[in-house]
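Fold it.
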Amino acid sequence: MTQDTLFSQFSDFVTSAEELERITGAPLPQIIAKELSALDQMCRDFIASSPFCLIASANPSGYLDISPRGDPAGFTHVISDTLIALPDRPGNKRTDTFHNVLKDPRISVIFFVPGKMETLRLRGSARICVDHELLASMAFGGHTPKLALLIHVETVFAHCPKCIIRSNLWQPDEWPESSHLPNMNTMMVKQAKIDKTPEEWFVSLKGTGELDLY
């Protein structure tokens, strides 16, 4: 199926960088100049205060995956101005990011700090590390990660706060009603066609390690 077929219900598309810039306008020179090739102290402080980030990587077919990572603030270790490390905590064992990095080391990360309108964007190349000393330094609550994602920083910059402001992301009084949305157990049973109720599925996971945070 061609791109034209996929979007055939619409017309009038932007097809060049020149046309795009005519619509959006060009960025101020300072917006481009703020990109750094290494972490400065402000970037280090932001990462040290961040308990949550999103990691983007590409699979062998070129499609992008975005994976969340979260831990107490400071979980991302800044090893040097151009090297950071993120511990891998127990998850669903898909390890999409790691599989992607094995084929294509290019990676992007965006760091969030609760209540802070700005975010920090980072691009670089990654490797999967099992260095004993590094993993031991990332232990939490007596649990040592089995893997760490080492990222060589190539570009880093602070991102405009407008999207956070518009979304009211840190304003609980403005959050949409969400009680009608299904939880993970319900989604798993329905989407994976599991012959159990959501409650039965949850009970079946107890004691398997699938529910462990660390």
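Residues 32 and 157 are 9 Å apart (CA to CA).
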